[in-house]
Amino acid sequence: MERQASLSNSLLRASFMVIVLSLVAISSVFTVYSNQKAKETLATDLLVMADILGNRSSAALIFGDIEGAQRNLESTTFSDSIVSACLYDRDGTLFVAYFAHADANAKRCKNSIKGSRAGDYQYPGHLGVVVPIIDGSEQLGTIVIESSTAPIASTLMNALATSMTAFAVIILAAYVILRRLIRLTIAPLRNLHDTALTISINPYLELRAERVQNDEVGRLVEVFNDMLDTLGKENNALMNSERRFRALAENSPVGIYQMNNELEFIYANDTWQKLTGMPQHCLERDYLKFVESAEREELVKVLEQVQKQRAPQVIEYHFKPPDGVKSMIFMEHIAPVLCYNEGKVTVDGMIGSLLDISDLKSAQMELENLAFYDPLTSLPNRRYFRDNLNYEVVQASRDKTRVAILMLDLDNFKKVNDTLGHDAGDELLSVLGKRLSAVIAQKDLVSRMGGDEFMMLLRDVKSKEEISNIANRVLTEIREPIIISGHDIEVSASIGVGIYPDDAHTPEELIRNADLALYHSKEGGRNCLSFFSKDLQTRISERVHLERKLRDAIKTDQLTFFVQPKWSLHEGRLISGEVLIRWFDEAEGPISPGLFIPIAEEAGLILELGDWLLDRVFDAIAWHNDELKALGIESLAINLSARQFFSNNLALKIESALKSYNIDPSMIEFELTESAVMEDTELAISVMHELKNIGCRLSMDDFGTGYSSLSYLKRFPLDAVKIDQSFISDIPQDQNDVEISAAIIAMGHKLGLEVVAEGVETQAQMDFLVQQNCDYAQGYMIAKPMPFERLFIETPEINKDMGGDSNMLRQNAS
Amino acid sequence: MVRAAVIFGILRFTQWPSEKLNGVSLTLCALGISPTSNAIETLPRIPSVAKFKLNYRHYESFDDTQDCHAIVLGVNPQGQAINLHNTLLICDGCDDPFIERSAIRLFKQAKRIQFGINLDRIDSQGLSLSSSLIELASQCYSSNPAFSGCRE
Prior knowledge:
A: 5-stranded antiparallel sheet, 25 helices, 27 strands, rod-shaped, B: about 150 residues, alpha/beta, 5 helices, 9 strands
């Protein structure tokens, strides 16, 4: 056991050493000083004595009285130390000598001291003085007195002995006093030590050291107590923190554990135990047994990394508890417990948190599914397709292969939705999705882009023929009837094809061009396939060019309108006219409405165009109202596009314009196409009623070309139907057309509607219409579309030319 | 010569009052015939005594000795021995009554020149002698019992 040092003993020793050394030093100095001083005193005494004796001997010297001089010198016997006195005359010759006692070492008086200097001299054991005897200014002689220094030494020895004795007494007294004093001084330190010892055993005690005095020790005690107070506060804070942590850990919904460097679990909260089904104190190697075998190595590696790199790590792995049925997915966050000691950092185990993310993972997968898959058809969605397309284009570029995309759009899907409902529409899409998946090869991709649009990605295509075969198979599959909600549904699709790198350099361009090809398919009658081509692109360029020009034309008022009059078969005159928009471009000449109207619709200009036309027609009517009335023109019919028809507040806009131009609403007839109103029949009925309520007439254009059902037809608040010219043009050769036209006229009349026949070009057609009691005819036979102003000139002539013929016809018919 | 040396020695150890001294010289006078005057007169020069220059005069009568500091009285000095205050009278072979009036008396004993001192005379003449001189004196007289400087 290590011997414990004692501060009091150390202090005592130190003090003693200081005292002893001090005493020795003092005594040494004192001795030397005393010795020196004694010698000096002796020398001084000798000098004085020599002076006195010299003075006293001066008479003897003068008088030559040897005896007298001898007597004088003998007076030195009073001094034990004086060994000799030598008196010399003025010539330095020995006059008289005296020797106090036999001293073998004392020098005899010299016979002559001529040349000797006054002063003192020494030789071992002796001290002498040479003093001239001066009387006035005359040196009568010299006296030399010599003394032994033995008495000095003797005296000093005595003094030393006395000192030693005194020192011994002093040291003893000092020991006793110092011991007591040190004890008293150390007592507070001892108390401090005892308090510190007690606190070190139990740091949580409220014990404090006693402050006795207001000295350095007292201040140390004060500082110590302050330190204990601070320590106490920190301990309390630590305990509170520990309690909070424990409460947090115990009640945490996350599994929390602590592991030592030997990978033994030394703490695990209840949640961890419940999650893992493992006991609190177990080894990591036992825990690993329940980790999925393929992931064990990774977990071990992570633990090693945490220890080596002293940085937290996160890992996910599958874990099947000992008593568990199914495997769970755990997310574990592991962090090192770092200890800071003497500037070094060491790892003292690890602390971790464990979370069961099984549900989260499922949700994540579901979200991923949602992110990349269409929930209705379970096909990949637009995002998935785009990602794959981007990748395949890069691959094809690198491998010098071809990639084709087929953009597929269902024809008239909206009608199915409107007819059978959205659920049926969804089911249709779902069934078609499965068919498309079945048709396409495994290496290729089918995705639903949204609505009724699908895209197919064909990898590594060799030829257009291959693509056509696939596309045609697709179209055939789609056309196969589907039974939905007890209904037999038949749909078709239009496909546009784009091929990389032939038709585009980037995925975006490829999609755009496939879209153009699709549009071309739609234009071409649907239910077909179109490949993108440069011509198509040219056409598109032309369309873009035309679109730009159309915008300018609308802005700069380059458009105009013609009117094609309608002949009343009953009244034998022109009774109304259809407004037809015309565009005469300065550079390109007349541009067909068949060309620029679709462009306007695609470019979103149709509303603007429609508004422009309404404004112009209303303006014309307003200016020429009287003339029109005089001609017997009762109304002008304006075609409304579907976009215009279904636009917001159409009726309000028209009513406002009519009022603005002060036009009788009955002068305006709106022609609506059958296909337009069937887009949203309920809304169409509503808008029609609004227009009817204003006072305008309504007629259905191109009747017979759409697929409106008769149930809707009877609900539409129409004034007339217009038989499409396709049914008139082959009359009387085509019996079908004859029958159809006759049926339409009869049906129209049955429904209380007037019937207008379009495209009447021959007399035979006119005769037929008269025979069928059709109400109105429109066509080249009556008049071609003409500028509005020409109407006022042409109408009377047409009435005149056609009037007689019509009478005759009516007579024949009756 | 020894007598002269003794006289000179005596003069060295004698102190006169300041009013008697002129600060520069002492005057030694001889009256009558004495061995000392004979000795002094044979000296080639008169030495100084301490810091004083010594003047020697040989007078026949006391009438001429007013300036003398010390008078060596020999045989048959003339005149009245008056006004001798502050003057050291040294008898060297003098006769009575001068022996009693002298402060110092030289005599020869055992082939040595010795001297005796009458301290009372010294005191009456307003003089003082060095103790060293007193010690060397063979004879010494003082009526003061407290004085123990004399050997005898």
